[in-house]
Design a protein that fits this description.
- With about 200 residues, the protein is mainly α.
- It is elongated, with a radius of gyration of 33 Å.
- The N and C termini lie far apart (about 100 Å).
Length: about 200
């Protein structure tokens, strides 16, 4: 009985304090507004802080790519693709960062994801995939992706005759035909005409 009486006295004291606090708030209407405003400012500040950090990461990644700082850009784009998996340029940045730090096998799926999300005109990333496969010594895959890049809009093909990153393909008859490295002096007149028509048809 004593414990129950003591508990009831604590409850009555608590209710009395709560009633007193409510009376103070009701007697000071402006106090409620000030409290709500202060809470909103805190929430706004907290909400603005994270986007600002994210924006800084975007800008930093672009700056590092522009400067060719592939190794420094790599963790940035690893973080971005985790936090923003549908950010197409994040996957392209990851592909470049992996590619030009020698991680060719990992760069290929990153480029493919960038193609899927529409980061750039597809032929640009297809060309990079061809270069990755060439660096891995995979001639058939490199040639297939180079041809796919051409089919999707790659132009100025003759510049790739001396592309060091496609050195693996230089002796491939199909590659030589694609980049117009064929010695037409050894072709018959009919073969020469057909070859010229294929070039014009690109």
């Amino acid at each position: 009985v004593f414990m129950k009486s003591k508990h009831n006295s604590y409850v009555r004291a608590g209710l009395h304090l709560l009633a007193s606090a409510l009376m103070v708030l009701l007697a000071t209407p402006g106090l409620l507004v000030k409290l709500a405003s202060a809470q909103a400012r805190v929430q706004t500040a907290q909400g603005e802080d994270e986007p600002q950090k994210t924006k800084d990461i975007f800008e930093l990644g672009i700056e590092l790519l522009d400067e060719g700082e592939w190794a420094k850009a790599l963790p940035i784009y690893q973080q971005l693709t985790r936090s923003h998996p549908f950010y197409a340029w994040g996957w392209l940045g990851l592909g470049w960062s992996l590619h030009y730090t020698g991680q060719y096998s990992k760069a290929i799926p990153a480029y493919q994801k960038a193609i899927e999300l529409g980061a750039e005109r597809p032929f640009r990333m297809m060309l990079e995939i061809a270069r990755c496969y060439a660096a891995l010594g995979k001639k058939a895959e490199a040639l297939a992706w180079f041809e796919k890049a051409m089919q999707n809009g790659l132009t100025n093909i003759s510049q790739f005759r001396n592309d060091k990153r496609l050195e693996l393909l230089k002796d491939e008859p199909r590659f030589r035909e694609l980049v117009a490295m064929v010695d037409t002096s050894k072709l018959t007149r009919a073969e020469g005409w057909r070859y010229d028509l294929r070039l014009l048809d690109r």
